[in-house]
Amino acid sequence: YTVARMMERNDFHDRFKAGTPISVHEFLYPLMQGYDSVALKADLELGGTDQKFNLLMGRHLQQEYGQEPQCILTMPLLEGLDGVEKMSKSKNNYIGITEDANTMFAKVLSISDVLMWRWYTLLSFKSMAEIEALRKDVEGGRNPKDAKVMLAKEITARFHSAAAADTAEQDFINRSRGGIPDDIPEVSLSGAPMGIGALLKAAGLAASSSEGNRLIDGGGVRIDGAVVSDKGLKVEAGTCVVQVGKRKFARVTLS
Hints:
Layout: H1 3-6, H2 10-18, H3 24-40, E1 44-48, H4 52-64, E2 71-75, H5 101-109, H6 113-123, H7 128-139, H8 144-159, H9 162-176, E3 186-189, E4 194-195, H10 196-202, H11 209-217, E5 221-223, E6 226-227, E7 234-235, E8 238-244, E9 248-254
Parallel strand pairs: 1-2, 3-9
Antiparallel strand pairs: 4-7, 5-6, 5-8, 8-9
Helix pairs in contact: 3-4, 5-8, 5-9, 6-8, 8-9, 10-11
């Protein structure tokens, strides 16, 4: 396989023209992935549109090894929660399929109205005619949140259940109204009185005491509904509901 053929790949071509370095291992990657098709004697390979060059490499290498070239099927990339980058755990713009129903539902509702229609196209089992009719309803004055709730319930039900999706919707409503969810983690701690920063860390509501203090500075921490503003607060023994932001809760029993 020639370097000239490698340079046909769009990003390699653009980077070469711009004088941006291209590492040798980047040239090796398509070859190694392509050889997988040879080793597997693949008939069909699936991938995102960004993998088209690598998939075609598999076809080429199969022909070189005297095999029937595989068919390839590419799929559009799913944009993540930010609506810009493709969904990726490393970019923290993803919804994990093993996440709990409440988190999954809330994350879908956090996307933009524009991204919602893209997700409908790529993720919903509704027909394109149904999606287009829903879009026209929204353009005609229907609240786009109605459509987003429908999408959130459909996705949540797919990985959990319809009942779990209904419960997640009610949980979201309760949180948005400042209520406390029915099902929150129970945490037992010892060491009273405990500094609020240390308590947030110990309860799993902050990654560190310093992060807990930053959350307090931002007004994002509540104890039994009251905003915590004192980073030096010592929490006495007893049971209280600690909230961080809109989504994180814990019922903490401190002894």
